[in-house]
């Protein structure tokens, strides 16, 4: 899954790369978490637009806000799941990112966080869905979810899932509402094994309140091995002149 990510790309550079009309002043964020406002790029009137939505999709048809956040949508079931199928067909988006975090289960001690980023340092786009939900008082909440797939060989030792990272040449096809279902399914695949690298980082990323460039500095990972079992205690030789109490 993808539960934290970062965007450090300057606003004007983001606008140039994704070719949208708006001029947002979105600050660098190094520890974006679910339920927070996140930028997506979507197609409206044939043009790309930058929009801030809540990370954690609320399907338009639900009567009450779900108790658990739908932050990820599995590519394998996205076309059938009631929570995602309408958005998948009609409301697809790009989520700009410079990297995302995953946590590796260690033999002993806390999980080790890793920053996953492109080897060449370039930003990328995660495949996403968005939806619009109306509350009981008539206000609207726009929200999104990241599309995930099986991990590639780079990420598999850390986590079994990864976000769908779209090649730049496929951005237009993903956004286009007329793209056939078969073509969309072909896009939802693991990233090439040589595209990404995994960097161990500080456990400071575990706290959502921490949001600074120091989080993406490579950290030294101390070995966490399971200690060997202690050797059995040797019993003292039995004195044949008296019975043992134990």
Provide a concise account of the structure shown:
The chain has helices at residues 11-18, 85-90, 171-175, 181-187, and strands spanning 5-7, 29-32, 37-44, 47-55, 72-74, 92-97, 99-104, 112-118, 124-134, 140-150, 161-163, 165-166, 196-200. The chain is mostly beta strands and 246 residues long.
Which quaternary structure do these chains form? single chain
Counting helices, strands and paired strands, the structural category is mainly beta
Question: In what range is the share of β-strand residues?
Answer: 25-35%
Cα separation of the termini: 55 Å
Rg from Cα? 24 Å
Largest sheet: 8 strands, mixed
Helix content: 10-25%
Q: Return the string of H and E elements.
A: EHEEEEHEEEEEEEHHE
Keywords:
single chain, about 250 residues, mainly beta, hypothetical protein yedk fold, 8-stranded mixed sheet, 5-stranded antiparallel sheet, 13 strands, about 10% helix, about 30% strand, globular, disordered C terminus
